[in-house]
């Protein structure tokens, strides 16, 4: 079922990809700091990824949305939820992920957009669980997962898309169930606070 979702937060818009997103996305994917814990992407690889992400949103009505910060920048990266690729050992399921351009780090955008994506997944789509994963050493991304209330599995896993022997092959998996998310969201609301602290 297509939900045709566009998501707004206090500072951001999570939307379908546009043709003019591809150039800043390629710049983002060429930034060695941004891609420190991911395999590098060439310009054509970046364009192809943007095309796949847009197609996924067309198919499902949700996915890894392009993120716009109105009044700040028309494109800051992507955040969202999408079905897991079948090659992952914990598939099937749905993952949450983010990748923001370096100038927009440290503003809480990842946490703000990810909380909105979780709300879509649990409240509108009715998912039972959402997972996240990253290279074990990626402490910045893991900190966002912690802020979202996700729980790390005890044992890391080898990402099948990363070559054997590569420094980034070992990944850590985080999980968040709908009931757990509801408890922490309702608890924060009862306390008068925001559901997730800004990153």
From TrEMBL:
It holds the Pfam family Acetyltransf_3. It comes from the Bacteria. InterPro entries: Acyl_CoA_acyltransferase, GNAT_dom, N-acetyltransferase. Residues 12-169 form the N-acetyltransferase domain. This is GNAT family N-acetyltransferase. It comes from Achromobacter seleniivolatilans.
């Amino acid at each position: 079922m297509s939900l045709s979702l566009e998501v707004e937060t206090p500072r951001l818009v999570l939307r379908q990809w546009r043709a003019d997103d591809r150039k800043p996305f390629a710049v983002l994917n060429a930034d060695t700091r941004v891609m420190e814990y991911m395999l590098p992407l060439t310009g054509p690889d970046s364009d192809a990824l943007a095309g796949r992400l847009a197609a996924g949103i067309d198919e499902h009505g949700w996915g890894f949305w392009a993120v716009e910060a109105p009044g700040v920048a028309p494109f800051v990266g992507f955040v969202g939820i999408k079905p897991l690729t079948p090659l992952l050992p914990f598939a099937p399921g749905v993952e949450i992920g983010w990748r923001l351009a370096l100038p927009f780090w440290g503003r809480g955008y990842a946490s703000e957009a990810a909380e909105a994506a979780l709300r879509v997944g649990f409240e509108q789509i009715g998912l039972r669980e959402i997972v996240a994963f990253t290279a074990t050493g990626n402490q910045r991304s893991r900190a966002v997962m912690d802020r979202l209330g996700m729980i790390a599995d005890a044992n890391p896993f080898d990402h099948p898309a990363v070559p054997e022997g590569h420094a980034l092959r070992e990944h850590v998996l985080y999980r968040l169930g709908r009931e757990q998310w509801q408890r922490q969201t309702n608890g924060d609301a009862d306390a008068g606070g925001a559901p997730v602290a800004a990153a």
